[in-house]
Each structure stands twice: as C-alpha cells, then as structure tokens.
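Morning, I've got a small favour to ask if you have a moment. Here's the protein in full, and shout if anything looks odd to you:
***
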Amino acid sequence: MARANTGMKSLEVERLAPEFLNLLRRHNLIEQLIRTEFIDKTVNHIKLKDNESSTLLENYAKKNGIRSESDFQEHLNKRGLRKTDLLHHLELPIKIQRHANECYINKAEARFLECKDRLDRVTYSLIRVKKPELARELYLRIIGNESSFSDVAVSYSEGPEKNSKGLIGPLPLTQAHPILAEKLRTSAEGELMEPFRIDGWWLIARLEQYQPSQFNETVAQTMCTEMFNEWVKRECIGIIDRLQAADKANK
C-alpha cells in the first residue's frame, strides 16, 4: 500500500516509561492512544492548503459562537488547547480520507461489489403473529382490501413494528432476517407476501421500496475509509503484541 510504512518502524508510545504504559492499561486507554498516534503518523504527509485550514477554523468559530480572536483564545484556554492542536484535530478527518483514497481508490469498486447487499436499502411493511390461522386471516383481509396493512399491524402485530403501523426502514437489507431479506430481494414493490414462518413467528410482509446502492464518489470514499480502518486495526494489533512481548521480557 502506498506510503503505508512511512514512519511506522516505531511509535512514541512504544518508548513510554513502563509505569505510564501500566497507567494507560489500567484506564483502558492504550489501544486508543496507539491507534490515534499510528493514524497521525500515517497521514502526516498529507498537507492541506492554507485556505482550507483557514476555512476549517472559520467554520469551527461560527459553530461555537466565537466572534473575536480573544474569544477564540479564551475558548482554547478552557479546553487546554493551542490553536495548532485544534487545527490538527480539524484537519485529521480530511487527511485520513485523502490518504485512504490515495491508497485504496483502485480497489474501491471491487470492495463495493463484494458488500453491495449491506449497502442496498429497503423499506417494508411487516406483521408478525404466533398463530398461522390468524396470519392467514389477516393476509386475506389485506389482499381483499377489507383492511389496510397499517390498521392490521396496529391492531394485531405482536412485534415492535405495531408502533410504526408496520412500517420498517429504510435500512440495509442485511439487517433483516436472511429469509425475509431474500423474499424482499425477489419481490416487486407493493407485492403482498403470503404468510411465511421464521423462528416461531408467522409473518406477512410487503416491500414498499427497494433502493439498490450505486457506486459513486461518496460510496467509493466510504469503501476506501473502511479498507484503511481495517488496515489500521491489523497494524495496531501488531504494535500491541510488540508492547506486550517487551513488557514480558522486562519482567
């Protein structure tokens, strides 16, 4: 991966005194510190233009109601920050995204195709009851236009969907039970499904809207960020392993 090993032979945290490392462990902060420093060193080569940095500070000031330089300094003092520290935090997400794009953009579409199912979103109506004969009766009422789906859901559904008149979503297709997800994937919008059983429940469902994901710039950036975060996680595990090995060796 491009620039992946820049400055990665060691981190400052690996040179901390054992007493301080033990303190970080006690408060469950060592993993967070390692990840933060690792990312910081990884993306340090990314430089923002002066006008980009200025805009970040201006937007921050507006968001926090800061109207003057003296107000800004007071704001920083209360938080124990210098302006350079604040700017570092504001710039970091942009640097991460640009570095991730730099390293993974050529793999983004392949990644998208692998995980498209979890990016597709659906909105559907759902009723679930325990008794199959009740499910059949409710299905016939709805398909015969004797009652609306929402009214039946409020009156008879035994799951939390009754509180939303049976309507669920939009949400990723993969959040639905695999059996339900497959039925939704192969149904037409507005089609009422005959009752079917899942885990002791009898379900009546209707697909309201299927929103297939499309590969675009925003999705590409999301894929790049996911791959970057996965790489960071693997590298940080290795650093923690080295720290633990060094700790054992020093005992």
User: Anything to note?
Assistant: The chain is about 55% helix and 10% strand. Residues 1-9 have pLDDT under 50 and may be disordered. Residues 217-249 form the longest helix (33 residues).
